[in-house]
Design brief:
317 residues; 2 domains; 13 helices; globular
C-alpha cells in the first residue's frame, strides 16, 4: 500500500513539474522586451515596460529565470500580483474556502442523487421509473449551468422569497451559519443537478453490467436476499467507474467552478482566475494553474486507493 502511494506521489510530482514548466515557458519564453510588453499591455509607456523587465529579471538567461521560478515554487512562493501587489498565496487562500464549500456541498448532493437514481434504474431496467429518471437525466445534461443558475435565482427571489435565498459573496459558516446556507444552497443545487445527471447514467450502466456477472448469479442461487445482492455485492463493484469520474470531477472543479461562481457571485477561485486573465495578472494565473493541477493529482491518488476498498479483486502493487 505505502509503496504504491509513494510511487503515485512521485508520479504526481512529475506531473506538477511538467505543468509548472509548461506554464513558465508559455509566458516567459521569448525576448525580454516582448515578454515585458505583453505583461504591461500594448499601451503602457516604455518606462513601465522597463520596470517590469527589471523587476522580473527578464533580461537574465531563460535558464536562470526558470531555476529561480522553480526555487520559489518549491518554497511555496507563488509571486506577487501585478495588479494588487498582494502575494498570490494570500489571494488564493482568500478565494479557496468559497470554492471548497461549493464543491463539497454539491458533490454530496450529486453523488447521493446520482448513485441512488442509477441503482433504481438498474434494478428495474426499461420500467416506467427507469424511463422517467432517464428523461430527467437527459434534461439535466442538456441544460447549461448558467441557465439553470439564473432560473434558480428567479425562483428564490420571485416564487420563494420567504426562504431568504439570494446570490452574493461567500459567507464563512462560523461567521453566520444561516447566511452561509442562504448563499450556498442555490449554487449547490445548480452544480449538483448538472453533475448528478452524469452519475445516474454511469451508475446505471455499471450496475447493469455488474448484476450480470457470475458471482451475482451465484449469490442469488445461494439464497442471499436481493437487497444484499444489489447493494453489498453489485453496487460495491459497480462504483469503481463512478469513483473514477468523481475523482476527476472533484479535482477539476476545485480548480475553480467558473460559471457557477460567476452566476452567483461567490468570489471563489473561478472568479479570481477570470479577473486575472482579464487583467493579465501573470503570477496569479500561474499559481492558480499549478494549484488546479495539484488538486487533480491528489484526487487521482485517492481514487486509486479507494479502488482496493470497493473491489476486493483490485490490489495495490
Amino acid at each position: 500500500m505505502w509503496r504504491f502511494v509513494i510511487r503515485r506521489a512521485l508520479f504526481g510530482l512529475l506531473v506538477l513539474w511538467l505543468v509548472a514548466t509548461t506554464v513558465f515557458l508559455l509566458f516567459f519564453a521569448g525576448p525580454a522586451d516582448s515578454v515585458a510588453r505583453r505583461l504591461a499591455g500594448p499601451r503602457a509607456p516604455q518606462e513601465v515596460v522597463n520596470q517590469i523587465r527589471d523587476t522580473l529579471g527578464l533580461d537574465r538567461p531563460l535558464t536562470q529565470q526558470y531555476l529561480g521560478f522553480l526555487n520559489k515554487l518549491l518554497h511555496g512562493d507563488l509571486g506577487t500580483s501585478f495588479i494588487s501587489q498582494t502575494p498570490v498565496s494570500t489571494l488564493i487562500m482568500a478565494s479557496l474556502p468559497a470554492t471548497l464549500w461549493l464543491v463539497a456541498g454539491a458533490a454530496a448532493l450529486w453523488l447521493t442523487a446520482g448513485v441512488t437514481g442509477g441503482v433504481i434504474c438498474a434494478t428495474a431496467p426499461r420500467s416506467l421509473r427507469d424511463r422517467l429518471i432517464t428523461v430527467t437525466v437527459l434534461a439535466g445534461i442538456s441544460l447549461p449551468t448558467f441557465v439553470l443558475g439564473i432560473f434558480m435565482i428567479f425562483l428564490a427571489l420571485s416564487v420563494f422569497p420567504w426562504l431568504g435565498l439570494a446570490p452574493g459573496p461567500y459567507i464563512p459558516p462560523l461567521e453566520d451559519i444561516r447566511g452561509f446556507f442562504q448563499v450556498m444552497i442555490m449554487p449547490w443545487i445548480t452544480l449538483a443537478v448538472v453533475q448528478a445527471a452524469v452519475y445516474v447514467r454511469l451508475t446505471r450502466g455499471s450496475m447493469l453490467d455488474t448484476l450480470g456477472e457470475d458471482y451475482i448469479r451465484t449469490a442469488r442461487a445461494k439464497g442471499a436476499p436481493e437487497h444484499r445482492v444489489t447493494y453489498r455485492h453489485g453496487l460495491r463493484a459497480a462504483l469503481t467507474p463512478v469513483v473514477t469520474q468523481f475523482g476527476v470531477d472533484i479535482g477539476a472543479l476545485l480548480g475553480g467552478v467558473v460559471v457557477t461562481e460567476s452566476v452567483f457571485g461567490l468570489q471563489g477561485l473561478g472568479q479570481l482566475m477570470i479577473r486575472s486573465v482579464r487583467d493579465g495578472d501573470l503570477p496569479v494565473i500561474i499559481g492558480a494553474a499549478v494549484l488546479a493541477a495539484a488538486f487533480i493529482v491528489v484526487a487521482n491518488i485517492l481514487v486509486d486507493i479507494a479502488y482496493s476498498f470497493l473491489d476486493p479483486r483490485v490490489r495495490l502493487t
